[in-house]
Amino acid sequence: PRFGEHFEKDVSGLFSDIWVDMTDDIYFDETYDFTCERLEKNGINPKSFFENKIVVDCGCGSGKFSATIARLGAKEVIGVDIGEKGLEFARQQAQKVSYGERMRFVQGSLLSIPLEDSSVDMVWSNGVIHHTLDYDKCVEEFSRVTRQGGDLFLYVNGRFGLFELLQDTLR
After folding, report:
1. Which conformational region is residue 153 in: left (phi greater than 0), alpha (psi within -120 to 50 degrees), or beta?
2. CA geometry: angle 38, 23, 8, nearest 5 deg
């Protein structure tokens, strides 16, 4: 097997159990509140940002951001991740809420997103591409699946923590 296949399995294994004990209030409500607050701090209205859009959540893990995006009015949310355990958890969680019918979850690599060209209005990728082998290829794939004029939300962990705290304080 190629190095990349081992790498993706290792990453999948590393993150496969971090949400097992997550309560519904954390999964649904805290993630929703956190996402709304983050967007609003940056001058973005969360509801109009997602309303009636087809969104792919690239590297969705447990699907908690997928659920938030659907709750905020997306027409459809497609969660893509390499880890089947997380995807199965996300499918179970989706059954608990009325907006879960607008979510679906697909196993696949962000280096070859299993979607057609120009098939989504927005790519959401929250803290994921730095866990891949090829940032440039991820961004190429994000571009490939996004319709012309679509949106990309890309959050990459870097100087998180003190930097973000300082940024919030300065705002």
Report:
1. beta
2. 70
CA 106 from chain centre, in angstroms, equals: 12
Please state the φ and ψ torsions of residue 126, each to the nearest 5 degrees.
-110, 100
Picking from 84, 108, 107, 79, the residue whose alpha carbon sits closest to that of residue 94 is 79
Angle at 117 between CA 119 and CA 80, to 5 degrees: 65
Query: Quick check: helix, strand or coil at residue 51?
Result: coil
For the chain, the maximum distance between any two Cα atoms, rounded to a whole number of angstroms, is: 49
- Angle, helices 3-15/84-94, rounded to nearest 10 degrees: 40
Output the pTM of the full model: 0.82
Q: pLDDT of 136-168, one tens digit each?
A: 899 999 999 999 999 999 887 655 555 555 566
Q: What are phi and psi of 105, to 5 degrees?
A: -130, 135
Q: Which stretches of the chain are assigned E, i.e. beta strand?
A: 54-58, 76-81, 103-107, 120-126, 146-155
Distance separating alpha carbons of residues 51 and 114, to the nearest angstrom = 23
105-118 residue pLDDT tens? 999 999 999 999 99
